[in-house]
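Re: [ENG-882] Designed sequences occasionally contain unexpected residues at chain ends

Forwarding the minimal case from QA. Structure tokens:
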């Protein structure tokens, strides 16, 4: 039997962010209609696909030798924990098919390396390898932030296939010494999943694929009488798991009437983004060109949630993964003013906090929710293009208002007008004032805008 090799890459960063990112804290994101209040004119809500940034580059030929000569394109990254001293520790899991196994099983090894900038990869060494067992290839690694422990979750076949596959967990205090956390599977299900540690609620949160009875147009490797949908699983300790019934009807996240009839949900990778959760969902559809076989994947969507359990799909027409050949399975790495992701040997990314925005074609206005003015100047994340000739029309004007909605004297619109700028950290000033004079007060922002996009306000 031909031996196949895949590498699963997990990026871990220490508790501190890089110097540039640590200095920036988002206060407000502008992604959805509820982020805009007291609106005037017509606003639009748009998302951006990931943009290619270049290859993951081994810094020296020795960087990948420990991973059995595999090229960076073999990497399938899984999870990133932002922070660090200017770099990220990288964990990669290589999977080799067990020769002669039927049904197919795999052997895996876990490695650790380093990326100093989100692009280069160095200093590999093996830190763990699989115990005996009929292992499969889906896995992820999460840091439990309240203890700083690392948890590695991966799947094996189960003696009773009709019950699904078995997920197992391993824990480590440092990423070097690992132990099995239970002699029994943590739960039985199908083996595609994405996950995170939710520091807001103090628990693991997994988006887990499951199967729902369904008559679908084309049969694939699971037949024609069931489809893949998602559930949300949660655990405080990584050992005991419950399905979150509030995720949807019967506890399931399913396609709706606005979807094509053959769409299925294969997996979803969630992560925190300021005051909300964002996920990138992998959508699937069987193909009549591959009857009774696993079909090609369809696309990826950005999803958004206020609680990590109930998800909205506001940008269905955007291929969130851009030109990536594989689904995103990692949350962002933060370097400078970029948010970076690794997919199949490539670096993809966006400027920080630019997944989605509020904008307008013509003159419009909206207000933000109330927030506490920080003691540091406000920074606006916005795209205000220059245009040319008669079409040099874009602007954003910014006003501060008090709790009663009244304009604060000295912070009127005409004192803060922005044009011809595209930056994630535009300092807001009203003449000689920066807003720090109002530190500790509850305020809102009133935006006037035209032919511009607003992503976030931070400090």
């Amino acid at each position: 039997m031909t031996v196949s090799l895949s590498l699963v890459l997990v990026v871990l960063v220490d508790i501190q962010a890089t110097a540039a990112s640590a200095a920036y804290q988002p206060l407000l994101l502008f992604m959805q209609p509820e982020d805009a209040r007291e609106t005037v004119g017509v606003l639009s809500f748009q998302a951006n696909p990931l943009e290619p940034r270049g290859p993951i580059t081994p810094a020296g030929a020795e960087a990948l030798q420990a991973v059995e000569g595999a090229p960076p394109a073999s990497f399938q990254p899984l999870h990133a924990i932002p922070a660090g001293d200017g770099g990220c520790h990288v964990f990669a899991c290589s999977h080799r098919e067990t020769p002669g196994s039927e049904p197919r099983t795999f052997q895996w090894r876990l490695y650790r390396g380093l990326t100093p900038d989100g692009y280069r990869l160095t200093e590999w060494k093996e830190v763990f390898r699989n115990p005996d067992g009929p292992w499969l290839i889906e896995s992820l690694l999460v840091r439990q932030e309240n203890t700083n422990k690392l948890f590695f979750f991966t799947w094996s076949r189960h003696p009773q296939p009709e019950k699904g596959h078995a997920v197992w967990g391993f824990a480590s205090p440092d990423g070097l010494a690992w132990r099995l956390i239970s002699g029994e599977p943590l739960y039985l299900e199908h083996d595609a999943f994405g996950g995170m540690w939710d520091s807001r609620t103090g628990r693991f949160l997994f988006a887990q694929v499951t199967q729902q009875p369904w008559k679908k147009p084309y049969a694939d490797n699971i037949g024609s009488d069931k489809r893949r949908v998602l559930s949300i699983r949660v655990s405080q300790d990584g050992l005991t798991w419950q399905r979150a019934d509030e995720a949807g009807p019967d506890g399931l996240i399913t396609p709706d009437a606005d979807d094509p009839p053959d769409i299925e949900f294969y997996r979803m990778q969630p992560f925190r983004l300021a005051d909300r959760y964002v996920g990138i969902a992998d959508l699937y559809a069987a193909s009549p060109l591959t009857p009774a076989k696993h079909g090609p994947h369809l696309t990826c969507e950005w999803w958004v949630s206020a609680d990590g359990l109930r998800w909205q799909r506001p940008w269905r027409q955007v291929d969130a993964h851009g030109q990536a050949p594989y689904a995103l399975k990692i949350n962002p790495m933060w370097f400078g003013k970029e948010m970076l992701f690794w997919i199949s040997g490539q670096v993809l990314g966006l400027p920080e906090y630019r997944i989605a925005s509020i904008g307008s074609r013509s003159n419009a206005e909206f207000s933000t929710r109330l927030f506490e003015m920080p003691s540091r100047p406000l920074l606006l994340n916005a795209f205000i293009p220059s245009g040319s000739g008669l079409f040099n029309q874009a602007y954003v004007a910014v006003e501060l208002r008090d709790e009663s909605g009244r304009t604060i004297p000295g912070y009127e619109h005409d004192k803060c007008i922005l044009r011809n700028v595209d930056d994630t950290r535009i300092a807001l000033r009203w003449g000689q004032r920066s807003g720090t004079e109002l530190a500790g007060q509850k305020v809102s922002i009133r935006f006037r805008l035209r032919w511009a996009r607003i992503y976030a306000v931070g400090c």
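QA comment: On inspection the terminal residues look reasonable. The first strand starts at residue 5 and ends at 12. Proposing we downgrade this to a documentation issue.
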